[in-house]
Amino acid sequence: MKPFMGPDFLLENETARQLYHDSAAGEPIFDYHCHLIPQQIAENRKFADLTEIWLGGDHYKWRAMRSVGVDEQLITGNADPFDKYMAWAKTMPQLLGNPLYHWSHLELQRYFGISEPLNEFSATMIWDATKEKLQSDDLAVSSIFKKFKVAAVGTTDDPADDLSIHKSINEGSAPIGSIDTRVMPSFRPDKAILVQAPGFAEYIERLGVAADQEIRSVKDVCEALTKRLTYFVEQGCKASDHGIPMVPYTVASESEVEAIFQKGIAKEQLTEQEIDAYQTSIMVHLGKEYARLGVVMQLHLNAIRNLNGPMFTKLGPDTGFDAVHDLPMAEKLAGFLGALASEGRLPKTVLYTLNPKDYYVMGSIMGAFQGDGIPGKIQLGSGWWFCDHKDGMEQQMKILGNLGSLPRFIGMLTDSRSFLSYPRHEYFRRILCTILGTWAEAGEIPADPVLLDTIVRDISFRNAERYFA
């Protein structure tokens, strides 16, 4: 029997073990999409205890705790930090088969050197041991970046943000001082696109202030977004990110789109077709600007959000009440990409879906838009959110191999708010090595150590480094 999450965890054959330990383990991390808080990076944050760094804002864990019957007071309420942590410790044994079980124990191992399973009996010992280490310089943000060889992180930022924190980090004037990790803002313009969302009119006013212009029309919205995107690029932005439910594609005239915008500003009810037409207009404009400025377009699709009305009212968004959507994708995605390609303005694009039914749609459509001499110009993004577990990662990589080029894949990202999430890259790399090792030992691909070493290192780090320039 193998030890619990020992050195060869998830490595199912000798080739996999060699690939991971000799090729993957030492590669740096390019965390091109995350939700780390720039202020916490700038101040070289230390965290008081596991409750703060583990449970503060992690809706994955909150959702799991609700599933096993933990009272909300111990999840998002004002209960004592140790009591919240103990509730999580008691939850852990009930999460066998859930990636949170693996991730949490990898984090205990890699950050604290603790290999004992977390449960209510080991909880106090683990709390005491981790609390002491969290107070040391070893687990300040700069030390975490250095320990895991984090070459770059892409935070998620609103176009109206002034990016002053990013500037201070990259200039070395923030309290964190000079660090080797590049902290890159990512352009997240959803609030300017979701015309029917509450607060749209107020946000457009805020965007105008940031762009130093009045916004009275759709043309003004586009100009303001271009100004802010240009500023983001000047501050090191390499990627945009869109969290809209589905890529839009409804073509309407300029006058029709303008009328829709005016209705949105006036907070009048819009039809689904009107919403889609406005979103299409803004998204096509932005896609062209991404291509012009060399910004990668990331599309996170098919999530349905804020399902529990009373809890959304109480806690707000991103608190564990979202789910997998099943919107149809093929026609709109093909139309949107085709509109950009027809003008020679299709940017590098990463396609993510919360619903794995979309993988074959995405994987086959993106093959129609590859080219321009760019390896893997259109990417099938890694397993995301409800799909970033062992089965989901295997499924995504195998479908990519079937439909496109797995060796050109840009690999894993944390998509996380926690500085403890970097072992997710290790988790991904171990799964990747087992896939390749299994194929090699079955004679399905060459057992060529140079070839396999190159592929593993590329997917682990180098492809993303090149892709995001």
List keywords for this structure.
three-stranded parallel beta sheet, uronate isomerase, domain 2, chain A, 469 residues, globular, mainly alpha, 10 strands, 20 helices
The CATH topology of the domain at 48-139 is given as uronate isomerase, domain 2, chain A
Query: Roughly what is the average pLDDT, rounded to an integer?
Result: 97
Oligomer: single chain
Largest sheet: 3 strands, parallel
N- to C-terminal separation?
45 Å
Query: What is the beta-strand fraction?
Result: 5-15%
Question: In one word, what is the shape?
Answer: globular
Commentary on this structure:
By secondary structure, this protein is mainly alpha-helical. Helices cover 49% and strands 7% of the residues. The protein has helices spanning 14-24, 38-42, 50-55, 59-67, 81-91, 99-112, 123-134, 141-147, 164-171, 190-193, 200-211, 218-234, 254-265, 272-293, 309-315, 330-342, 359-367, 390-403, 423-441, 449-467; strands spanning 29-31, 150-154, 182-184, 186-187, 239-240, 297-301, 303-304, 323-324, 349-353, 378-380. The strands form four sheets. It has a three-stranded parallel beta sheet with strand order 1-2-3. A three-stranded parallel beta sheet has the order 6-9-10, covered by helices on one side. Strands 4-5 form a two-stranded parallel sheet. Helix 17 (359-367) packs parallel to helix 18 (390-403). The protein is globular, with a radius of gyration of 23 Å. The two termini are 45 Å apart.
